[in-house]
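Let us work through a complete example step by step.
Step 1: write down the sequence.
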Amino acid sequence: MAKKLLVEPAAAPESFEQAMAELAQLVSQMEAGQLPLEASVAAYARGSELVRYCAAQLEKVESQVKVLEGDMLRPFAADGAGEGMQ
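Step 2: predict the structure and record it as tokens.
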């Protein structure tokens, strides 16, 4: 009889930074070959969740910036940036 893994749903990250840190840790473990096959599949699934979470957070922030900038995103000025501020 096949043994089933009971995988509890992982909690949502508390922040974008926490999600990125967890994702970096998962990638490091997978690249180092530290995980058995079943754990690698679970890590891949968790990584996918984290990527979706981060993408959603970035989209939300982009929307907020568009509102603050009046839908006119402007590139940062490389020349003269910070002039007049001392």
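Step 3: interpret the result. Residues 37-68 form the longest helix (32 residues).
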